[in-house]
Write a structure and sequence with these properties.
The complex is a heterodimer of chains A (78) and B (703). Chain A has 78 residues and is α+β, with helices and mostly antiparallel strands. Chain A has a single domain, classed as SH3 type barrels (Roll). Chain A contains two helices and six strands, in the order ββαβββαβ. Chain A has a six-stranded antiparallel sheet with strand order 1-6-2-3-4-5. The longest helix of chain A has 8 residues. Among the domains of chain B are: 163 residues, 3-Layer(aba) Sandwich (Rossmann fold); 62 residues, no CATH class; 178 residues, no CATH class. Chain B contains 31 helices and ten strands. In chain B, the strands form two sheets. In chain B, strands 2-3-4-1-5-6-8 form a seven-stranded mixed sheet, with helices on both faces. In chain B, strands 7-9 form a two-stranded antiparallel ribbon. In chain B, helix 20 runs antiparallel to helix 29 and helix 24 packs across helix 26. The longest helix of chain B has 35 residues. The chains are: A alpha+beta (78), B alpha/beta (703). Chains A and B meet through helix 1 and strand 5 of A and helix 3, helix 10, helix 16 and strand 10 of B.
Chain lengths: 78, 703
């Protein structure tokens, strides 16, 4: 199993460490400000009933984002 | 004679700043009680809440409740206002001398990011750790003395919901001297020269105090000033040039200044949190267990449908009584005025114009109050975010996000509270698109028009239930399809931009506090009355004038009066325009007069066709009007209201913008006359085109 994956590929309940994502764009700037930074551990809590968006746990709180953006976030599975 | 008393010193100004869902409003309400003023920041539809609190010695203190924000690098108009007030960029609001930062104690790390930015401003800050009880329950212990020492500012544990910690907070607020934060963090080397140069320019060219200039310089580098809102003072030319210069240089070097800054803030926060936060492993929380059901692929939908059904049932059943009551009493009051004044134009202006106009403002209040009661409940418990989470996938198909779901759904009851509820949508463009399409959702005011048309359409005396339901469903479907279709279109053309983003916190569930929900509800109602009321009143007086003048000769019937009035003449004038839709001038009068509100179509049509005793609401008796409509003829003897024309008229009402109150609310909520005007043009234009197609196609097919 590859260690590197996209955040959107994690299965429910899996944890990973954020490694990299695009530098530019308002979305990724806000994601940083919300505490999702390279090196931050995250856990995939669940996906919405229609399969999108996803809910992650990060720094002790729950955050949702869409798969289309999670696809750009490279994580390292734990 | 001059007063002997010295003028009181102006009270100190505090700003309350915090993330959304951290209990900020509860704290603000607890501090100020009923002594608060709610309005809008001039030029933007962001709520401005200012109140007065009293110090331990009874001195008044001004408290401004800033809109919930995650960062001073603004992403929404709400955050832009918070940033601008704190930086002293708004001339309509005094720059706060002291800042109260409130954070959710169970979510300290993320919350400290905003605190970190606020500390840079160089003004005294009091940190309030709210929801200490919830933090303790989820196994989090905080070393408060340690945090106080690290930051060098007063840190006050608090439970705003039950008033714990409030006295300590007031004591801290009353202190004549509050320490500035000793907290220092090293601005990353890579950007230090840029910060220094920008800071100097802000001091020299924009008259900013040095410390706040440093904060603003740091902010300009992360913010890129994406969201500029009306009312904020622009930067001086020199400062903008310096900023552009640095940004250009970094861009060519490939340095990501924003990432470096955010990273170094979180590094410093992380170190502090490691010292302060002690986490005991806790089992699954109540929120986890509730969410397992609420976002379940099966139960999630059942719960969502049940919650929405409950809201709608309440609106339809509960609002009816006060609405009837208001209608009745306004009418009775009008009668009383009529009987106590001498006949004449002034009396008619008062009774038929002004009092009727006030009545049409008041009659919306029950729906607005009930809907905002539920919206406040859904928002404060945390369910609102879950509904957005579940619906996001569907809404994203047309380019919106889950936040638009509740406002659009509310518009089935009435577009006015629906449009007012769009304030929870962060993205300005998404919000505007939602406002533009919300009135296409078939609201309850269209029902009387649908009912009378269905009655006239179906032969025989009784309408089979299935036919009625079927036609109704068709109309609701048309409206909903139109709303989503236009949302899709607007997001691709008129309001094209970055695709709407979805990055939303799912806050822990809370028990709602009825006092706060009630506050929220009354605030909304007041905003409606004050902002839209005057416009509605003005339009209804104009509409009254159009149907009352010029006066018909003495002894003329109501029908003759209306036919000869300006409205009647306008009906004649637009006949060439609506003839291709199968409508004559008499229908035209109905269309024009029902711009006041769609249901007016029924009463004005009754006058035009000289029918009495139609009644209103539940008491509406469709039989006499239906008979009159069936007997109506064109001058050449063809029947006017053929089934096809009835269907066309319903379709017209699905799409046409026929509601002055919505126009008034859209005007206020968008702060522009252009958008309501555009809405009238596109909706009524669509109504014409679709009705034209229906009528002409129907004719071609032999109906």
């Amino acid at each position: 199993m590859p260690v590197e994956a996209k955040l959107s590929e994690l299965s429910v309940g899996a944890s990973a460490i954020v490694r990299a994502y695009p530098k530019s764009g308002a979305f990724f700037l806000r994601l940083r400000e919300m505490g999702v930074l390279p090196g931050t551990p995250v856990t995939l809590v669940r996906t919405a009933p229609l399969g999108d968006p996803i809910e992650i746990k990060v720094r002790g709180y729950n955050l949702t984002l869409r798969k289309s953006e999670a696809e750009h976030i490279v994580v390292e599975r734990l | 004679m001059a007063s002997l008393h010295p003028a009181p010193a102006t009270p100190r100004v505090f700003a309350v700043v915090g993330n959304p869902n951290c209990g900020k409003s509860t704290l603000f309400n607890a501090l100020t009680g009923l002594k608060q003023k709610v309005g809008n920041y001039p030029g933007v539809t962001v709520e401005k809440k200012v109140g007065t609190a009293y110090s331990q010695h009874g001195q008044p203190m001004t408290v401004i409740d800033m809109p919930g924000s995650y960062s001073l690098a603004a992403r929404s108009p709400d955050e832009a206002v918070t940033r601008d007030v704190l930086l002293g960029r708004r001339s309509d609001t005094p720059t706060p001398e002291r800042i109260i930062c409130i954070v959710d104690a169970s979510n300290l790390e993320r919350s400290l990011y905003l605190v970190h930015q606020v500390l840079d401003l160089g003004r005294p800050v009091i940190l309030v750790l709210n929801m200490m009880d919830i933090a303790a329950k989820s196994g989090i212990a905080l070393r408060i003395a340690r945090l106080e020492k690290e930051l060098g500012i007063p840190v006050i544990p608090c439970e705003a919901v039950n008033g714990k910690g409030l006295i300590d907070l007031k004591l801290a607020m009353s202190r004549p001297d509050l320490p500035l934060s000793r907290h220092a963090w090293d601005v990353p080397k890579a950007i230090a020269p840029a910060v220094a140069e920008l800071q100097a320019s802000l001091v020299d060219n924009d008259n900013k105090p040095p410390l706040s200039a440093r904060a603003e310089a740091l902010l300009l580098l992360t913010d890129q000033d994406a969201v500029r809102v009306s009312g904020s003072t622009p930067l001086s030319r020199r400062t903008s040039e310096i900023l552009k210069g640095w940004q250009g240089r970094w861009e060519s070097e490939g340095t990501d200044w924003a990432a470096i800054l955010v990273q170094s803030r979180y590094d410093s926060i992380g170190k502090m949190a490691a010292e302060v936060v002690q986490r005991r492993p806790a089992g699954s929380s109540a929120t986890d267990r509730i969410d397992a059901a609420v976002t379940d692929p099966v139960w999630g939908w059942i719960i969502l449908v049940a919650v929405m059904a409950l809201v709608f049932l309440s609106i339809f059943t509960l609002a009816e009584y006060p609405m009837d009551w208001i209608d009745h009493h306004v009418a009775a009051f009008g009668e009383w005025v009529r009987s106590s004044l001498a006949p004449g134009d002034l009396r008619n202006l008062l009774t038929d114009g002004a009092i009727a106009g006030v009545g049409s403002i008041l009659v919306f209040l029950p729906q607005i109050l009930i809907l905002f009661f539920f919206i406040g409940l859904l928002e404060s418990t945390g369910y609102m975010a879950r509904a957005a989470f579940i619906m996001d996938r569907l809404m994203s198909r047309v380019g919106l996000n889950g936040r638009s779901f509740i406002p659009m759904l509310s518009s089935y009851a009435c577009a006015i509270p629906g449009i007012m509820a769009t304030r929870t949508i962060e993205d300005a463009k998404d919000r505007l698109v939602t406002i533009l399409v919300a009135p296409l959702m078939s609201c309850s005011a269209r029902l009387p028009v649908y009912l009378i048309m269905i009655a006239a359409l179906v032969p025989g005396d009784r309408v089979p239930l299935m036919t009625k339901v079927g036609i109704m469903m068709l109309m609701y479907g048309l409206g909903t399809g139109g709303a989503f279709g236009f949302a899709w279109l607007f997001k691709r053309t008129l309001l094209k931009g970055a695709p709407s983003m979805m990055i939303m916190e799912l806050p822990p569930y809370h028990l709602p506090r009825l006092k706060d929900v009630a506050f929220h509800m009354v605030e909304r109602a007041w905003i409606f009355v004050r902002n839209a009321g005057t416009v509605i009143l003005a339009i209804s007086i104009v509409l009254w004038f159009l149907s009352a003048y010029p006066r018909a000769p003495q002894g003329a019937s109501a029908q003759e009066q209306l036919a000869g009035s300006f409205a009647g003449r306008a009906g004649h004038a637009i006949e060439p325009l609506i003839k291709p839709l199968g409508f004559d001038w008499r229908v035209g009068i109905g269309l024009i007069s029902s711009f006041a509100a769609r249901e007016v179509f029924v009463s004005s049509t009754a006058v035009v066709f000289n029918v009495e005793n139609v009644g209103e609401g539940k008491d509406m008796n469709v039989v006499p009007l239906r008979t009159a409509l069936r007997d109506a003829r064109w001058p050449d003897g063809r029947p006017l209201f053929t089934p096809l024309v009835c269907l066309g008229l319903m379709v017209y009402y699905v799409f046409a913008m026929q509601c002055m109150s919505t126009v008034a609310v859209v005007w206020r909520e968008t702060n522009s006359l252009w958008w309501p005007l555009f809405q009238i043009i596109y909706m009524t234009g669509t109504a014409w085109v679709v009705t034209f197609v229906v009528y002409q196609a129907g004719r071609a097919l032999g109906f």
